[in-house]
Design brief:
Length: 389
């Protein structure tokens, strides 16, 4: 995603037409559903109405999410790494948490929506998107450099957080993949503390682990060597632009928040009507939320910025677990809703295989298209097992 250089119209006006268009369309859809939604989405919902509402809400949320990514990407270029990518990741994951909470608080019983969404994010981000990044980047550059210390730090966080949030509940005396209330409180607090400590170290003393290393000669294709080098000087931070784009980012996130409840109603109806797997709801949320960020990650890999792709992909999942697990547990405790976090035996195997493969992929200092093929195979296995059990 391109970001205008100093002196361009964007930095002069700070109000790009595309962003204004997204804002207007998103808020118009919100207004329409605030007026007519209670009537259209009142049970029983007509199938045609459900389909139309889903398409409109899905498209609007995706449109707003792309706007959020654009604004976050601007902030990323202004503030530099790892702050920029962190802003983008936290914005996207916040949207996911909002959507999950909306489904959990909906009229239907969805005790596994948090677990299903987190697991779907793992399969989509760590296998599908990471695989595409490695495959396309590897095909173009052969091998790509990255900072293995940062990648392994992400993997270590993934192992601990996913292990506590998704595997540990299956070993407890509750016997149904849930936490006892005291355990839920304790693990929610521990997860928040650990994730907060990780963010602090990522942006302070260990920020160098999450910055793209100098490119090696093997990662530069012949056609790229013939191109003139890009300017290394970083433009000064435009404080006024940062403030305005931060406001725009929040303004684009609000329609997603306001439409989340209506989307939850339609998803519940759709899954029940067609008899689809309950886990499909989590997959839908993951696709809606992470499509814009996934496109950004693939573009970064195609520009030989694999570290940024890693920050987006691995960082997105760490943020997903670090924020979603406490949020879901807290919502369950406050509302009295049952929250099932333990994954099934099959999902446990897929989870461990994914973490093991990710560890081996980023254990060295370079990755290739072969690693991408392995990750894509893992996602294909997940897709088969989602519908054929």
């Amino acid at each position: 995603m391109s970001v205008p250089t100093p002196g361009s119209s964007l930095l002069k006006t700070h109000l790009p037409a595309s962003t204004i268009s997204k804002l207007i369309v998103s808020w118009l859809v919100v207004a329409v559903f605030m007026v007519g939604g209670p009537t259209w989405l009142h049970a029983p919902i007509a199938p045609v109405v459900a389909v139309v509402c889903f398409v409109v809400i899905f498209a609007t949320i995706l449109l707003a999410a792309f706007g959020v990514v654009r604004e976050a990407d601007y902030l990323a270029h202004q503030l530099g790494e790892p702050y920029g990518t962190l802003i983008l990741t936290l914005a996207i994951v916040s949207i996911e948490v909002i959507l999950i909470a909306a489904v959990l608080l909906g009229p239907g019983e969805n005790p596994t929506i948090g677990r299903d969404s987190i697991f779907a994010v793992m399969m989509i981000i760590l296998n599908l998107v990471t695989g595409i990044c490695l495959l396309l980047g590897g095909r173009r550059y052969g091998e790509q450099d990255y900072n293995f210390q940062g990648a392994i730090a992400y993997v270590a966080m993934t192992l601990v957080l996913a292990g506590i949030g998704l595997i540990l509940p299956n070993t407890l005396s509750t016997g149904d993949g849930t936490f006892w209330p005291a355990q839920a409180v304790a693990f929610a607090i521990l997860t928040i503390i650990l994730y907060g400590a990780f963010l602090l170290m990522q942006t302070r003393g260990y920020s160098r682990f999450f910055v793209q290393p100098e490119l090696g000669s093997l990662t530069i294709p012949m056609r790229a060597r013939e191109m003139p080098p890009q300017a290394a000087e970083k433009p000064p931070v435009d404080l006024r632009g940062v403030i305005i784009h931060s406001v725009l980012l929040v303004a684009l996130m609000l329609p997603i928040v306001l439409l989340a409840h209506d989307l939850a109603l339609v998803i519940d109806f759709g899954i029940a009507a067609v008899g689809a797997p309950v886990a499909l709801g989590g997959v839908v949320i993951a696709i809606i939320v992470f499509t814009p960020e996934s496109i950004t990650a693939v573009k970064a890999a195609m520009q030989n910025q694999l570290q940024r792709s890693i920050n987006l992909c691995l960082g997105a999942f760490v943020s997903t677990v670090g924020l979603t697990v406490p949020a879901v547990l807290i919502v369950g405790l406050v509302t009295g809703k049952t929250v099932v976090m333990g994954v099934s035996p099959t999902e446990t195997v897929l989870l461990l295989l994914t973490i093991g493969l990710t560890t081996l992929t980023f254990l060295g200092q370079r990755a290739s298209a072969l690693h991408g093929a392995l990750h894509l195979t893992m996602f294909a296995v997940f897709g088969v097992l989602l519908f054929v059990t």
